[in-house]
């Protein structure tokens, strides 16, 4: 994955710099022990009031029926490439606090934090994760009996980076292009909105 390593302005952990989201995946299964460690990493994420409002539905190609069910919950454009990944998952969020059934405004944030843990653990194990917002939540609810109060929020393809030359042209271009990010000055402010923080001033 090193050819896509981020060119950072400040030092960060190598796993964060190496993480990226390919469209091309190898036809190579992910070991069960590695998958369990990914979800263990998600398990230990921080959450508001320790609510842990995340759940995951996971399917591997070892069970073609379950895999096709989960694949069908992705929008068509994502099915084109995600069908080649050995593992698919849906991130489910419980939008209510268990204690009082009140709205949990942190729930989606906490699902993201848990999945962030999962992604870093995957990178440490030589795996790639491509997250997707392009899913069909109503279909997921129907197929997997997701209860009221919970909702499928994101999808994930998990596996080993593949050869971008196997992709359709538009996706191949995305896998080959350099990674880009906003500069810190564009989103780290002090004093008022839009004022780049003095922390960022370079000597």
Question: If you had to describe this structure to a student in words, what would you say it looks like?
Answer:
The chain is α+β, with helices and mostly antiparallel strands and 203 residues long. It has a single domain (14-164), classed as NADH Oxidase. Helix content is 33%, strand content 15%. It has helices spanning 14-18, 32-43, 64-71, 76-82, 107-124, 137-144, 169-176, and strands spanning 54-60, 87-94, 128-132, 150-159. It has a four-stranded antiparallel β-sheet with strand order 1-2-4-3, sandwiched between helices. α2 packs antiparallel against α5. The longest helix is centred in the middle third of the chain and has 18 residues, at 107-124. The protein is globular, with a radius of gyration of 18 Å. The two termini are 32 Å apart.
Summarize the structure.
By secondary structure, the protein is of the alpha+beta class. It contains 7 helices and 4 strands.
């Amino acid at each position: 994955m090193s050819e896509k390593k981020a060119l950072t302005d400040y030092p960060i952990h190598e796993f964060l710099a190496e993480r990226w989201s390919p469209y091309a995946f190898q036809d190579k299964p992910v070991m069960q022990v590695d998958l369990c460690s990914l979800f263990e990493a998600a398990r230990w994420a921080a959450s508001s009031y320790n609510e842990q409002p995340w759940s995951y539905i996971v399917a591997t190609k070892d069970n073609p029926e379950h895999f096709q069910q989960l694949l069908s919950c992705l929008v068509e454009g994502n099915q084109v490439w995600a069908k080649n990944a050995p593992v698919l998952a849906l991130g489910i969020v419980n939008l209510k606090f268990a204690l009082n059934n009140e709205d949990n405004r942190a729930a989606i944030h906490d699902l993201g934090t848990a999945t962030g843990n999962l992604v870093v653990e995957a990178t440490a194990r030589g795996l790639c994760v491509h997250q997707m917002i392009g899913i069909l939540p109503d279909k997921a609810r129907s197929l997997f009996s997701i209860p009221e109060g919970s909702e499928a929020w994101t999808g994930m393809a998990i596996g080993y980076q593949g050869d971008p030359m196997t992709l359709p042209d538009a996706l191949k271009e995305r896998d080959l292009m350099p990674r880009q990010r906003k500069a810190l000055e564009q989103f780290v402010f002090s004093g008022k909105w839009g004022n780049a923080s003095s922390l960022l001033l370079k000597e």
